[in-house]
Every structure is written in C-alpha cells, then in structure tokens.
C-alpha cells in the first residue's frame, strides 16, 4: 500500500512539474493571421502580407459619394506590391473591437480601424475579413472595408 501511495505521489509531482501544452482556438488562429497581415504592412514586408492571402482572394472597398454607393475592387497583387514598395511613412492600420466568428472551415473577423501614415491620421472605417481554413492554415479570401475621414471614437 505504501508503494502505491509513493507511485501516485510521484506521478502527481511529475504532472505538476511538466508545462501544460497550450492549445490555440480557431478564433486565436484567425486573429494571428489578422495580426500577421497588419504587422507585415507596418514592416513593409510584402512576403509576409502575401502569405496570409488565398490565391483567389479579393479586396473590396465600399465607397459612398453623396447618394451613391459603389464597390471598388483592388487586386491582391497590387496591394501586396504597394506594401513592399519603398514609402516614406509607415503604413499603420490600428484595429480595435475585433469580433471573430468561426464555423468549421470558414471564419469572419470584423473590426474597426484607423489608418495612419506614420503619425498622421489618414482615414478610418470597418474591415470585414473572410477566411477559409486550408491545408496551409487560415487564409484570407476576402477583405471588404468602409473608408471615411470622420470617425468619432473609431479613430484609434
């Protein structure tokens, strides 16, 4: 009986001494992709930015002018090239109020943003990212955003 108690105590001590393996949730994985893209933008790292996109991804912006609303589509490759091109100011897209929803192999991330060129505020709005989980992990298949100059509390 004493040996069983010692063995049980040894296993308990061993279990406490081993570090717990942290598992990430799909929501955390999606958030990591969002962060990689914006960190890549700030660094001017087109390779890092390109890596988050699915080959069939697209970028869109909702543009409201007066009473009309249009949707502009920009090629991902053009955006990636612009990120990697030399520019004097850091492209700093500051995000807040990030909401992530996951359903199996699909996810959405909705967030407020304020875009700054260096220290100068440029514009703000909302980003809606769509993701799909592939063999390479979560990839962005679409980003659609709104853009405006007046932001209220959304300007971070």
Integer tally of domains: 1
Could you give the order of strands across the largest sheet? 2-1-6-5-4-3
| Sheet of most strands | 6 strands, mixed
- Mean pLDDT level: 89
Beta-strand portion reads 35-45%
The total count of strands amounts to: 6
- At the first level of CATH, what is the class? Alpha Beta
Which structural class should the secondary elements be placed in?
alpha+beta
The CA-CA distance between the termini, in Å, is 64 Å
Uncertain spans: none
CATH architecture: Roll
Task: Provide an overview of this structure.
With 156 residues, this protein is of the alpha+beta class. The chain has a single domain (25-154), classed as Roll (Nuclear Transport Factor 2, Chain: A). It is 31% helix and 45% strand. The chain has 4 helices and 6 strands. The protein has helices at residues 2-17, 26-43, 46-51, 76-84; strands at residues 53-65, 68-74, 91-103, 106-117, 120-134, 137-146. Strands 2-1-6-5-4-3 form a 6-stranded mixed beta sheet. A hairpin with a 2-residue loop joins strand 3 (91-103) and strand 4 (106-117). The model has no long low-confidence stretch (mean pLDDT 89). It comes from Longimicrobium terrae. This is Nuclear transport factor 2 family protein.
Which properties best describe this structure?
156 residues; alpha+beta; Nuclear Transport Factor 2, Chain: A; FrzH/put_lumazine-bd; signal
